[in-house]
């Protein structure tokens, strides 16, 4: 097993017509930090910034939070990386600096994606390749952009899912619906919703059960039983394990794996435990260009090493684009592997957007693993 893990996660929300709010998390075996930075979309200028420590090594580390404010006013232009490294890396902390640099690039990519949508609305024949070839971060957006996209602030307790559900994804048809991919705070550093609140929301929606798959963290059986009894709700244990080939959802394995593990070694443990492995969001990251547009065919994707070691592929995931979900489904079909669905919930308002419908009753983790091996399920769209 590899002995060191570093995980970076970030998301971008368009919170106002000219504001992009970027949330970033950096988590490794020594440090855990998060940042929120608001960029102007037009100039990619940092308007505000806040930071938070989850884990640090010296008493001086918390002082870095006071040194983040000099980043306000910086723009994503030539020299941005060096400026952040000098001002934030030296004055505050290199971990915050590295994260902020990547958050800036995430804001730039989001700006490009938004402006392509606006330009395509004015010129339906405009290809993505042609737009990217001519696009510059400092160019003026299309004149009618203000009318092409309406921005609505999310409700305080019910923010919309990050990705709109696939319109043609099947709906449940009377089976038992379980969300197989759920994260909770604080077990997953990137999550914001406590498990009790997520359970209450799932019950209100009519989801029949959920599997807690926190990153490299396994809940104890006693804690799960206590929560099941408290809420009268089916709650099961899983895990999202980081491997050398990407994230893998595992069911039926109780060992708490820390760090990065080789996928072949994880497979050996799953076989011994008679568990089940699902490749999670295998094509996350093709938001801007798309798999086909990068020259990756279904046949080529199906040859990737990761798929040689798993029992199924997550083909409906609430944190990726419809195109990425669709491409995953095509690869699963090409490999004759079953597909699963899960919200990949990290916050309120997203539980159950996608789930898995079982044709048999599930009452325990053993039931779940048995049903997964039997193929008695299908991925479904549950929540609009």
Automatic annotation (TrEMBL):
GO molecular function, one term: 5'-3' DNA exonuclease activity
Domain Polymerase/histidinol phosphatase N-terminal: 178-245
Entries under InterPro entries matching the protein: DUF2889, PHP_dom, PHP_domain, Pol/His_phosphatase_N, Pol/histidinol_Pase-like
Pfam families to which the protein is assigned, alphabetical: DUF2889, PHP, PHP_C
SUPFAM superfamilies, sorted: PHP domain-like (SSF89550)
PANTHER family for the chain: EXONUCLEASE, POLYMERASE_HISTIDINOL PHOSPHATASE N-TERMINAL DOMAIN-CONTAINING PROTEIN
Protein known as: PHP domain protein
Lineage: Bacteria, Pseudomonadati, Thermodesulfobacteriota, Desulfobacteria, Desulfobacterales
């Amino acid at each position: 097993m590899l002995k060191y893990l570093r995980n970076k996660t970030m998301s971008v929300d368009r919170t106002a017509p000219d504001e992009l709010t970027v949330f970033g998390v950096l988590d490794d075996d020594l440090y855990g930090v998060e940042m929120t930075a608001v960029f102007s979309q037009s100039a990619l200028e940092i308007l505000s910034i806040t930071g938070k420590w989850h884990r640090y090594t010296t008493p001086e580390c918390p002082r870095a939070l006071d040194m983040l404010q000099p980043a306000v006013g910086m723009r994503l232009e030539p020299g941005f990386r060096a400026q952040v490294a000098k001002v934030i890396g030296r004055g505050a902390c290199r971990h915050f600096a590295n994260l902020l640099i990547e958050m800036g690039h995430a804001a730039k990519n989001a700006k490009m994606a938004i402006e392509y949508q606006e330009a395509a609305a004015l010129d339906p024949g405009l290809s993505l390749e042609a737009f990217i070839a001519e696009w510059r971060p400092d160019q003026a957006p299309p004149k009618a952009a203000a009318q092409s996209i309406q921005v609505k602030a999310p409700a305080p307790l019910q923010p919309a899912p990050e990705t709109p559900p696939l319109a043609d994804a099947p709906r449940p048809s009377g089976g038992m619906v379980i969300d197989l991919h759920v994260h909770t705070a604080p077990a997953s550093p990137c999550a914001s919703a406590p498990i009790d609140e997520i359970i209450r929301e799932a019950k209100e929606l009519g989801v029949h059960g959920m599997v807690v798959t926190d990153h490299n963290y396994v809940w104890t059986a006693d804690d799960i039983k206590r929560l099941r009894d408290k809420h009268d709700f089916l709650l099961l244990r899983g895990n999202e394990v980081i491997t050398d080939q990407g994230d893998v959802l595992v069911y039926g394995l109780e060992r708490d794996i820390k760090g990065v593990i080789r996928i072949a070694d994880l497979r050996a443990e799953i076989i011994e435990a008679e568990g089940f492995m699902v490749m999670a969001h295998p094509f996350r990251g093709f938001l801007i260009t798309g798999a086909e547009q990068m020259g990756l065919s279904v046949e080529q994707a199906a040859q990737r090493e990761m798929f040689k070691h798993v029992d199924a592929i997550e083909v409906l995931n609430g944190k990726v684009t419809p195109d990425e979900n669709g491409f995953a489904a095509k690869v699963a079909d090409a490999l004759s592997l079953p597909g699963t669905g899960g919200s990949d919930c990290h916050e309120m308002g997203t539980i159950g957007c996608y789930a898995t419908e079982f044709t048999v009753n599930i009452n325990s983790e053993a039931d779940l693993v048995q049903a997964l091996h039997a193929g008695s399920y299908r991925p479904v769209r549950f929540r609009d």
